[in-house]
Amino acid sequence: MIFKAVGDSRPYPDHGLETTKDWSNVPPRVVQLGELITTKSTLDLRNLLADDSTFYGDLFPHCVEWEGQLYLEDGLHRALRAALQQRPVLHARVLVLS
């Protein structure tokens, strides 16, 4: 299994970070793919296979740590690409909510 679980929603409270600029203040760290719970259950293959998929966005996926769980909010295509390249970890911005 690539991820800990596949979800289809954000079970954590709204955190107010909307734009790439908002997220830029959250430092990236290494996360294990096997610890991530996705917040989306579908993926657009055009995003996964695009050469410039991160050209206009953040280089790092966005995760939220809440109640001891790590949720992948944005960057599913980056995480899946890492898994396809047999990398068990990736660098992601992790917002810790209490």
TrEMBL record:
Top-level taxon in the UniProt lineage: Bacteria
InterPro entries per record: VapB-like_prob
Listed Basic and acidic residues bias regions: 11-20
Stretch list, region Disordered: 1-20
Pfam families linked: VapB
Protein known as: Type II toxin-antitoxin system VapB family antitoxin
Organism phylogeny: Bacteria, Bacillati, Actinomycetota, Actinomycetes, Micrococcales
